[in-house]
Amino acid sequence: MASGGADLGARDAFLLKLHEEQLRKKFKHAIEFGVRDRPSRSGLEAFAAAVRAHAADGDTVVLRATFRGNLPVVLFVGRTNNLMVMALESGLFLSC
Q1: What pTM, to 2 d.p., does this model score?
Q2: Apex CA 71: angle with CA 84 and CA 19, to 5°?
Q3: Residue range 76-94, pLDDT digits in tens
């Protein structure tokens, strides 16, 4: 579980890195991001685009936190849609 909560505010210079293997692992959440495709190439591309759109959305709050007590992460939390994307501070996508 992530804890902490320092608001990062601006998303300046934060590049979300989405690797196919991790997108496949988390594809079960694609429907929550509005993606109804299967986990094909086009489905994964749609899921990646939806995750990026969520992170860039002005309604999304960006927080710095820790995951499992010691792993620094960045959370992109939707204020109204209850969606969350978690990435390492390096930008590597972990979960949603």
Answers
A1: 0.84
A2: 60
A3: 999 999 999 999 999 999 9
Is 10 a residue whose pLDDT tops 80? Answer: no
Total residue count of the chain as it appears in this document: 96
Domain of 65? 13-95
For residue 88, being part of any structural domain is answered with yes
Q: Is residue 47 part of a domain?
A: yes
DSSP string covering 32-78: GGT--S-SSHHHHHHHHHHHHHHHH-TTEEEEEEEETTTEEEEEEEE
Q: What is the CA radius of gyration of the chain?
A: 13
Alpha-carbon span 50 to 35, nearest angstrom: 8
Count how many domains the chain has. 1
